Amino acid sequence: MNAIFNDLWGFISTADNWRGSNGIAARAQAHLWISFVATVIATAIAFPPALILAHLGKAPVLSVGIANIGRALPSFAVIALVLPISISLGFGLGFWPTCVALVALGIPPIFTNTYTGVANTPAALREAARGIGMTSPQVVMKVEVPHAMNVILTGFRISAVQIVATASLGALVGYQCLGSYVIEGLAQPTRARDRLLTGAVLIAAMAMIVDFLINRVEGHLTGWRSRLR
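Request: output the structure for the sequence above.
Response:
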């Protein structure tokens, strides 16, 4: 155990390993950036249709089933499928093939939780809102979304954490991220344990930090529910 810790600490504490385009700082920033972009795109794709379909009560089984296709597709298989298309269109290796796979992974939790949270809004709340003259958009934004916010943010948190953890696959197609340390460690004949550990620990740490931060935001945005109870 001490040897493992010493290998990890020795690599992280070396200043030269933090510098340059392939340093820890640059790769962590790239890892966080592609995770952020993929989460934003997944939210933009999944949230509006889930909100509308749930409000209208349309096709619950079909809607969630279609969204869950992203869970059944292996992320690496998506990268392999998108890679030649990305190259042919001039987008190249790395970022966009990985981002497409991450978006496919991130859509299902956001869609499913948004649909479930909004669809489960009590009918009495909707009727009361319409009774005081609210329009359909007002019912959605002022009644259904606040009521479902806890479930919606849980789906967003699950999606973001999965994306951060899976973004390491980008290293397999040339995207320089924290997963690159894992690939480099495995590629060396002697199995560079310091690089393997650094990549694995930093990816896990980033996922836990993202989970913690979103959880705190969720607490602030839904704290009124606890106070109300």
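Residues 2-228 form a domain with the MetI-like fold fold (CATH 1.10.3720.10).
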